[in-house]
Amino acid sequence: MRTDLKIIEQWIKPGSHVLDLGCGDGTLLDYLQREKQATGFGLEINQDHITTCMGRGVSVIEQNLDTQGLGNFEDHTFDTVLMTQALQAVRRPDMVLDEMLRVGREGVVTFPNFAYWRLRWYLMRRGRMPESETLPYKWYNTPNIHLCTFKDFEALCYRKGFRILTRTVVDGEHQDRWLSRLWPNMLGQIAIYRITREDS
Amino acid sequence: MPDPLPTDSVGIVTPQTLHFDTPITLACSRTLESYDLVIETYGELNADASNAVLICHALSGHHHAAGYHSSEDRKPGWWDSCIGPGKPIDTNRFFVVSLNNLGGCHGSTGPGSTNPQTGQPYGPDFPVITVRDWVHSQALLADRLGIECWAAVVGGSLGGMQALQWSLDYPDRLRHAVVIASTPRLSAQNIAFNEVARQAITSDREFHAGRYYQYNTLPRRGLMLARMVGHITYLSDASMGEKFGRELRDQAYKFGYDAEFQVESYLRYQGERFSESFDANTYLLMTKALDYFDPAYEHDNDLAKALRGACCEFLVLSFSTDWRFTPARSEELVNAMISARCKVSYAEIDAPWGHDAFLIPTPRYTAIFQAYMDRIAREAGV
Q1: How far apart are CA A135 and CA A130, in angstroms?
Q2: C-beta atoms surrounding B363 within 10 Å
Q3: Each residue's pLDDT tens digit, A128-187
Q4: Which of B334, B338, B371 sits opposite A51 (nearest CB)?
Q5: Is there a contact between A55 and B375 if contact means CB atoms under 8 Å apart?
Q6: A72 touches chain B (CB under 8 A)
Q7: Closest partner residue to A59 among B335, B343, B371, by Cβ?
């Protein structure tokens, strides 16, 4: 299993009701169902992923976050709402975060850090939109339309009154390294945040 | 029947008639003292009876879902595309049961059967049957066949309603419900189309208040019109456009009222054929069963509340161009299931054929159906 999923898995209490936004082929939900007796759903739009989920016994709903939102889920339905590597690809990340913490008690979000030093260096040296292993697209065909930095994300959480329960910063291989802990916004490639509403 | 027979066909099948002597009380409070159900089965029931799949048919369907009755048959059963060795409902792994529902006209007791009290066909005296009644009779059929729990109950359209009703009425007697191109209840527009169909039948002079059997006639025109209206709702604008466009049977306009456009002659042909082979009273009964179906009704119109007792897993599928039971209706059902914390998977399949798409294999439909049924088979240990 991907290292980031292993990190997330530790935060899911046994028997949790979980919603996974952009659940992919259902690897994480499948694992949580088997190992943590978790229940819940994945939302996905990739047709092959949906078929794979159905074949492995992961409940998956074909639903597009951008056009359909989460309006069909009632308030406080889930213990945890997950979104791995999708925040930067949605049309309104701020609204999605709001919705995540409306339907769920806790949110877990992972996204690439646009302030990672290599990307900064790429932009400074070449004056062109950075490309990397984590972000292997051109500016015109990238699905990542809302890239941000750790600082940006944290500022948004502050503005919205979200409490950051945990932040784990990892490198491209999702390894937790001491260097990226030292100066996360410069040296961290991917962040995994666990958030909740301030008042809850 | 094609020669040689395709390897994924169940081949020649023989229906069987099962007689039930214990009276069954229906939703309308009336009782049928005894009745017959005609069924077909494909595949073998395994030792622990864990691999049984029930197929529920739609409005004009019947027990003959797959294979051929004889080598002279031109067409296989109505869902042959999905049932057979290696197909989504794989008869190498599953024991498949398909029946003609009560009130039908293909051998199960219905309006055309002899009323034991009068010695005449029931006709309009045959009780109105509901989806719930069908499911009740299917449960008695399961008892007879030694099936305590279905691996899956599967159906499209009105058949999907039966699968849904199963999950509510006998929650511990099925592990999966596959609800395809269906709806949790008919809309006013759906009921309106059904009413046009019923009016067409009952206003036919040959209908004789439903006792046409005694007059040795059939309300052909009425049933033909009913079928024509129904048929339009099963197709999509795009698929009709693709199939017929504005094509004429002859080169030029004739400035008359005969069937000049291909679509007219197609509808007439289909309607005429149907009116010879289907019973008008059964058609009335089936449309009424559709209209009445509304599991939320008894739960303050709260579908989620109705679903709270369901414990099977659901697969819900809709088709993009289905305007009879639109994807939005399936989503309504899925959302109620989510709210009731049911395990449910849902996909909207892109297909141009309107409501009929559930009968037509497309790569994505087949892939999903196959993947889901494969998982059910694995769970059943086959």
Answers
A1: 8
A2: 9
A3: 999 988 889 999 999 999 999 999 999 999 999 999 999 998 876 666 677 777 788 888
A4: B371
A5: yes
A6: yes
A7: B343
Q: Which residues of B touch A17 (CB under 8 A)?
A: 341
Q: Is the Cβ pair B371, A61 closer than 8 Å?
A: no
Give the count of alpha carbons within 13 A of B175, CB side only.
Answer: 20
d(CA B175, CA A25): 23
Q: Are B201 and B280 in contact (CB under 8 A)?
A: yes
Chain A CB contacts of B176 under 8 Å are: none
Q: Are A154 and A164 in contact (CB under 8 A)?
A: yes
Catalytic center residues of B: 157, 322, 355
Q: Are strands B16-20 and B313-319 parallel, antiparallel or unpaired?
A: unpaired
State how far the Cα of B79 lies from the Cα of B99, in Å rounded to an integer: 13
Distance CA B162, CA B135 (A): 6
Of A60, A73, A74, the CB nearest to B345: A60
Distance of residue B375 Cα from the nearest chain A Cα, in angstroms: 5
Task: State how far the Cα of A138 lies from the Cα of A131, in Å rounded to an integer.
Answer: 7
Give the position of tokens 């027990």. Answer: B63
User: Can you give the pTM of this predicted structure?
Assistant: 0.95
Tell me the CA distances in angstroms from A71 to A63, A74, A75, A117, A174, one per residue in order: 11, 7, 9, 38, 32
How far apart are the C-alpha atoms of B2 and B72, rounded to whole Å?
9
pLDDT digits (tens, 9 = 90+) for A26-52: 999 999 999 999 999 999 999 999 999
Q: Six-digit token pair at B282?
A: 């059964």
The ipTM, to two decimals, is 0.93
Q: 3-class DSSP state for residue B240?
A: helix
Evaluate whether B135 touches B169 at the Cβ level (below 8 Å).
Answer: yes
Please check whether residue B172 is in contact with residue B149, taking contact to mean a CB–CB distance below 8 angstroms.
yes
For residue B287, give the nearest of B376, B380, B194, B351 by alpha carbon.
B194
Which residues partner with A81 through β-bridges? A19, A107
Pairwise CA distance, residues B62 & B40, whole Å: 10
